[in-house]
Amino acid sequence: MNWLSRLLSQPEELEAIHVYLDERPHWVVPAVCSLPAFFSSLPALMPIGSMLYLENTDFAEDVELLMNRLSIKARRKIEPGTEWPVPKWFHIPVTRSNMMQLTDISRQRPISDVADHLVGYLETIVVFEWYDLLETPIHVTGALERVKVHRFASSLGVPFRFIEVGRGRRQNS
Length: 173
Known about the structure:
Helix 2 (35-45) runs antiparallel to helix 6 (146-156). The strands form two sheets. The chain has an eight-stranded antiparallel beta sheet with strand order 5-3-6-7-8-2-9-10. It has a two-stranded parallel ribbon with strand order 1-4. The protein starts with a helix and ends with a strand. It has helices at residues 3-8, 35-45, 61-70, 96-108, 111-114, 146-156, and strands at residues 16-17, 26-29, 51-56, 77-78, 88-93, 117-122, 125-131, 138-141, 161-164, 169-172. The longest helix is centred in the middle third of the chain and has 13 residues, at 96-108. It has one domain (19-172). With 173 residues, it is of the alpha+beta class.
């Protein structure tokens, strides 16, 4: 297919994934105050081949330029955390290099210039959701091994706990 036919063709419809992890057994990591620490710690949590969805209604210009450079075509549609104003979003492979670049730019900018909502996913599995950064905790799928969550939370210097929804049991760590 030549470039013109690709440009004029209809985009393939992606299957939307969105799981409210707080409605299932899951790990809870408190909201962290440092976005640079979050980005630099993320590879410890995410499986190889994972993607990071970043959403914002008002990216700073230099941040948006970086996102455009790092992002790839969406593999899955993520339901946006903001309906209005319509947000911009990017899908970025979770690699150490990409996370270091996000770490660097987030050191220079307030969180509101970088992202409002973050979702990590691997194919059709939502690994974590962090909506309304700094205001809400990070919800991590209960299917992820405790050791990965422990490594991630330890690198952030925060505790974590497991919540079995519907059973009222909490396991603190």
